[in-house]
């Protein structure tokens, strides 16, 4: 069970995961050791799943950010999801409610690369029913962590 101090630590880490335990401790009035203990506890409990860095795809030559809804026959949705998740171009794969749909977030360097990905990796999926593709034109918010 999380308390208010844990929520404060999580908020600080979500804004800057590079903060040291000592810096967090100074900000919320705890010792470095107490912060470390709480963070390690949240990792053990599965509250914190991963520490990571968010990279701007433009600097890696991946200028297209593409969201796809891929509808697959129900019995084959897990197979399709695992296949798409194995591809390096794919950042996110979620199974959605409703029709047997997968939400897929793809990063591609060009329209040609996106076309190749769709033709070779999506259109060849067994049980494919439909594909809807949306290219991101502007980002207003991108926060994949759960707000606490």
UniProtKB/TrEMBL annotation:
It comes from Geochorda subterranea. It holds the Pfam family HTH_AsnC-type. Gene3D superfamilies: 3.30.70.920, Winged helix-like DNA-binding domain superfamily/Winged helix DNA-binding domain. Keywords: DNA-binding, Transcription, Transcription regulation. InterPro entries: AsnC-type_HTH_dom, Dimeric_a/b-barrel, Tscrpt_reg_AsnC-like, Tscrpt_reg_AsnC/Lrp_C, Tscrpt_reg_HTH_AsnC-type_CS, WH-like_DNA-bd_sf, WH_DNA-bd_sf. The keyword DNA-binding applies. SMART domains: HTH_ASNC. Residues 2-63 form the HTH asnC-type domain. The keyword S-adenosyl-L-methionine does not apply. Coiled coil: none annotated. This is Lrp/AsnC family transcriptional regulator. It comes from the Bacteria. PANTHER family: LEUCINE-RESPONSIVE REGULATORY PROTEIN (PTHR30154), TRANSCRIPTIONAL REGULATOR AZLB (PTHR30154:SF34).
């Amino acid at each position: 069970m999380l308390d208010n101090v844990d929520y404060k630590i999580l908020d600080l880490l979500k804004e800057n995961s590079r903060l040291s335990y000592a810096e967090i401790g100074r900000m919320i009035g705890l010792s470095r050791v107490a912060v470390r203990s709480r963070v390690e506890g949240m990792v053990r409990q599965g509250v914190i799943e991963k520490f990571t860095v968010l990279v701007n795809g433009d600097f890696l030559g991946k200028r297209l950010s593409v969201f796809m809804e891929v509808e697959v026959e129900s019995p084959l949705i897990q197979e399709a999801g695992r296949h798409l998740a194995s591809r390096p171009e794919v950042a996110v794969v979620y199974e959605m409610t409703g029709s047997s749909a997968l939400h897929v977030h793809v990063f591609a360097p060009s329209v040609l690369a996106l076309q190749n990905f769709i033709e070779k990796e999506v259109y060849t999926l067994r049980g494919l029913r439909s594909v809807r593709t949306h290219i991101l034109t502007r980002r207003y918010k991108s926060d994949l962590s759960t707000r606490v």
